[in-house]
Design goal:
The protein is α+β, with helices and mostly antiparallel strands. Helix content is about 60%, strand content about 5%. It has 3 domains: about 15-35 and about 240-400 and about 420-455 and about 655-790, no CATH class; about 65-75 and about 490-625, no CATH class; about 85-240, no CATH class. The protein has 26 helices and 9 strands. β2 and β3 (about 145-150) form a beta hairpin. α11 packs across α23 and α23 (about 690-715) packs antiparallel against α24. The model is unreliable at about 1-10 and about 790-809 (pLDDT under 50). It is a multi-pass membrane protein. This is MMPL family transporter.
Length: about 800
Amino acid sequence: MHTDQDLEQQPVVRRLQDFDTSSGNLGERALFNYRPLVILLCLLATIVLGYQATRIKLNASFEKMIPSAHPYVVNYLANKADLNGLGNSVRIAVEATGGTIYDRAYLDTLQRLNDEVFLLPGVDRPFMKSLWTPGTRWAAVTEEGLDGGTVIPDGYDGSAATMAQLRANVARSGEIGQLVAADFKSSIVFVPLLEQNPQTGQALDYGAMSERLEQIRAKYQKEGVRIHITGFAKIVGDLIEGLQQVLMFFLLAIAIAGAVLFWYTRCWRSTTLVVMCSLVAVLWQCGLLAALHYELDPYSVLVPFLVFAIGMSHGAQKMNGIMQDVGRGTHRVVAARYTFRRLFAAGLTALLCDAVGFAVLVSIQIKVIQDLAIIASIGVAVLIFTNLVLLPVLLSYTGVSARAAARSLQADSADGAAQPWLWTFLDRFTQRRWAAATVAASVLLGGLGYLYSLNLKVGDLDPGAPELRADSRYNRDNGFMVANYAASSDILVVMIKTAPDQCTRYATLASVDQLAWQLEQLPGVDSTNSMAALSKLATIGYNEGNFKWYDLIPNAGALGAVQTRAPREMFNQSCSLLSLYVYLKDHKAATLTRVVDVVEAFAAAHNTPDVQFQLAAGSAGIEAATNIVVKQAMHDMLFWVYGAVILLCYATFRSWRAVLVAILPLVLTSILCEVLMVVLGMGVKVATLPVIALGVGIGVDYALYVLSVMLTRMRAGASLSDAYLHALRFTGRVVILTGVTLAVAVATWLFSPIKFQADMGVLLAFMFLWNMVGALVLVPALAYFLMPPKPARQDEATQAQERAVAGIH
């Protein structure tokens, strides 16, 4: 991967005319012999892609968040036309602050709010529901027979008589606990959403939708009510709204990285170029995404910073190599070429490992993760041009300041007792006693960590929206919904398929009722609702309100009569699909698992050719499917990413021993990262799954730079200690610099108002630091046992003689 010449072996060339421009490989000659052309092409690319980057959009999609190939989601999509409102929806609770909902002023406010929401773009209007929508009806048995109508009575004028009639209608509607709170102090406007705006044909703009909802909240809260809003669209809207603060933290992280790099180099030219090239990579990435019609979403918006961080890491290595060569008196152009020769292969392999870490995420059948994988892979591919090619070419023009070069040489040329104390300490890990203790401690830590990591859960571990802070407005609103409504926003719907016109048969409804009873016994289940429950209530009505009749009657006529008055969400037009609504207290992983397990077991025991119990619709049903996919993908993803990284490392080092030395620290980091997630109460889900893969791809960078220099020295006959000390002087300082700097930079995210970003900051800071420690401590310790030094090279004549004797030509 390197030329046989190492740092000191490459001749010092003080004048450019003394350098052989035909030396080096074809790629080096093509780049450095035509430097103006390289810079011109990069400048043109920056202008074109910079313009394209101004067109990139930030949005999200509900359908991209769901695993469309999972059987649960396949079932939902197959029946989606009959299940409107059970996917992407918003719930708006309008709370009366001074009394109950049976107040003329409150109902007037609710009507105007209802009408305004009804006209919002993207609302699935026929299925919107509130006290003021015609689809909200009541039914009752009177002396004259079965009667019913809209909950808001005809001729309502706010008078005492119509208000009393409204109170009676609400009581008979079955909406208490669903649209109306049990304490009658609030009611809900249920707003199902379309994925596309029918007026424009474009994807629904969640940022704009959330902004309009906030305007409605601000407008009507001035009229004596309090508004609470929940739903996927509001979560995404709040995340998008918080991105302005997210960008501030990005800028702070960039400033910290740049400041620390300048402190290390004391050279503003080289520091500016490293930061600039890393930012150019982000600009190219955003431009390419816009040109390919990709959008950033709240989950992939962190990727550009990861690209910047990876670029800073590689750029600092290139700059450090040039500084050392210039410090020895080498001309800046020659120094840039020497550094390109030494580090291009290591950098390319590291970036390919990063790209593989992202690319394997494409195998996960969730569109938002697949898009993230493509977005990140494009960013890493761009770094090959900006930080491995453009940066050395630019540094060949600007060079580094003489003071910085001399300082670098002075710091890295010391030996023996003059070695920095940290180098002396780290060199101990190349000794048998320290190496054995380190490997043993790592094995113990890895074993205990693995056992503890088995407690890692899949899915959300907290109620509400874990992406937002617990005290955020959204999570406070969600808490209000859970406390006041049995019909929470976390709905799982079991679909019961029958033959046409057979959905209200007694045997079918009896099975539905049996399953509903089993589900109601589970912790985390608030209530259920179905045609079976409605039929039992209707039976009471048919028998003068006597609760002794609260049961299903095996009478086809009676059951069919209920069907004619039942709400349409209970069954479809052809009576071939029933919906069993399961209202959950939360969507925690444990809650979803319990419900899914009971339904699966019931379906296995009761499914027949005529009646099929299928999972799952509703927000909680789709999340249950997502959790299952994520759990399987976590293991498959690690298998593929480690397999790819191992192959790339072997292609680079051509030594299985070196591959083990590079990979084992990554394995330990992956285990400890999962332990950290358990400790911090994070679940594996769409938002956190990619980080586990990124830890492998990003983490191998440090080991590759240290190990590549060690291998070159050891193959030249140096001892492990000498090779490691040389690697520390050449790349170790920058490994420490970038590891600590980037960890500190992302640690500032802890103060972000968006919990998702704060969680990512913790995980990334941990991985940056731990991968750095693994490269500096565990790599030399493993190398002691796996990479014993070879004897020094003999002269060429002796080597040729030995090869002839061995029959090697």
